[in-house]
Amino acid sequence: MKLTSLLGIAALLLAPFAALLAEEPGRVIPLSAPQRLILNDDGHNGFYMGRLKDAAALRELPQRMRGTQVGIYQWCVTSGTKVNYPSKIAELCGEGVSAETLATVREGDRTLAALLQKLRADGVDTLQCVAEGCHAADVQCYASVRMNPVYGLKAAGWTGDSMARFFNSKFWWEHPEWRVHYQDGREHPALSYTFPEVRARVLGIVREVLERDVDGVDLDFLRHPPCFGYEAALVKGYQERFHLDPKTLPDDKDERWLHYRAEFVTMLLRDIRQAVDEAAKKKGRPLGLSARIDHAKHLLWGCDVDVWLKEKLLDILVVSRHGLGGWDFDLRPFVEKGKAAGCQVFLGEEATIAGRDPTPEDAAKLKPGEKAAPTATTMTEAIWFERARQWYEQGAAGIHIFNGAPMRVLKNLGDPPAQKHALPQ
Q1: Residue 265's closest CA among 300, 316, 239?
Q2: Phi and psi, residue 386, nearest 5°
Q3: How far apart are CA 190 and CA 60, in angstroms?
Q4: Distance between CA atoms of 389 and 383, rounded to whole angstroms?
Q5: 383-387: average pLDDT
């Protein structure tokens, strides 16, 4: 038989497998040392400081990661419940705010709002530009979605409800019935995942960002809890299933109540995983899904990590803590569960260990031309390296960096043997 005939028969036999591979791109290749750092960019500061004025600046931003050990650059697309990319679902951050409110926010926020609207008018897709810059630097780009970034009507250092006006979307303002409620009926500003409309909005944003050339999506559940309270629909559903009134139970102890609430988040995660996999098929390459959770309160806040891992919904689990950095806990139980599920477990570090963000009140106290003093303290290089050593000993696949780190840290934190040479002797 001629060689060409044999090749033709082989091609016919392999065709179904080739089609299957094309249809199922599979899961992402795990990050490995030394390029095993994840850097989360809040997607706010560059606009706030006025640096991201055009498409070129947006593409250049992540290219600073060239030559570092950052494997994934997470670009946060949500600013409050508004966004920083041209969306059909949500307004741009600062959009629709009155002149009176704009006059009371920080100067940087006014700069941000003006830049985002100008970039959209110029046809610049901010997220797409960042993704292109990541790929030019040989770094993956994940769109990071804060899962409940709602601000209350009062904030220290802000005039009236100006912070909420600037950052909270029309969706939030127009639907108070979808907010979390305390046991005594008082309203909490957070949105409740009890309601399908809230979950649908998050899923819609995820689907939008997947239209860009991103490599994955990150779900940040640390910004900001809670996701549930004692909403009437939630209480009714629990009563119908268990014939108990959850208001008579301590919500941090009753496992049935906690798992029942978490089912609504798990439903959303299944839908998001499906959306990620569908986008991967269209693009013909794997796309990842990561989530950042609190090490102790994840179930209380609606994150049933054991179910997520059992169903293999995640590629990366970032275990962290809500609040300022500098804390310790045992990562090993999460590492073991992650191994069994084929999910990498990263330790999530918060760079800020003391202080707070600047407020409009801080700026109002400055004299003309005076530079504002720092309002926050961040980890030193020595602290970064010592803490990373401990986390790697506990089995962390890598380090997730929130709120930035010095360049020397980004160039050495993923390679423990090199860390001892990174600091001046």
Answers
A1: 300
A2: -65, -40
A3: 35
A4: 10
A5: 96
Strands 82-83 and 78-79: antiparallel
Rounded to an integer, what distance in angstroms lies between the CA atom of residue 360 and that of residue 19? 57
The per-residue pLDDT for range 183-219, each reduced to its tens digit, is: 999 999 999 999 999 999 999 999 999 999 999 999 9
Which residue type does 365 have? Answer: K
CA 98/CA 96 separation, integer angstroms: 7
What Å distances lie between residue 133 and 121, 198, 214, CA to CA? 21, 32, 11
Confidence (pLDDT) at 245: 96
SS3 156: coil
The dihedral over CA atoms of 345, 304, 204, 213, expressed in degrees to the nearest 10, equals 10
Contact 318, 144 (CB under 8 A): no
pLDDT digits (tens, 9 = 90+) for 292-304: 999 999 999 999 9
Terminal CA-CA length for the chain:
71
Q: Which of 412, 425, 352 is nearest to 386 (CA)?
A: 412
8 A C-beta contact, residue 226 and residue 301: yes
Q: Where are the alpha helices (DSSP H) in 122-149?
A: 126-136
Residue 140 · residue 217 · CB < 8 Å = no
The Cβ of residue 364 has, within 10 Å, a number of other Cβ atoms equal to 11
> Cα(82)–Cα(381) distance, rounded to whole angstroms?
34
CB 196: neighbour CB atoms within 10 A? 14
Which tokens sit at 73?
Answer: 């650059």
More confident residue, 252 or 419: 252
Residue-range domains of the chain with CATH: 35-419 (3.20.20.80)
CA distances from 268 to 23, 260, 354 (A): 23, 14, 34
Query: What residues contact 85, with CB distance under 8 A and at least 6 apart?
Result: 77, 125, 126, 127, 208, 209, 212
In the predicted model, what is the mean pLDDT of the chain? 93
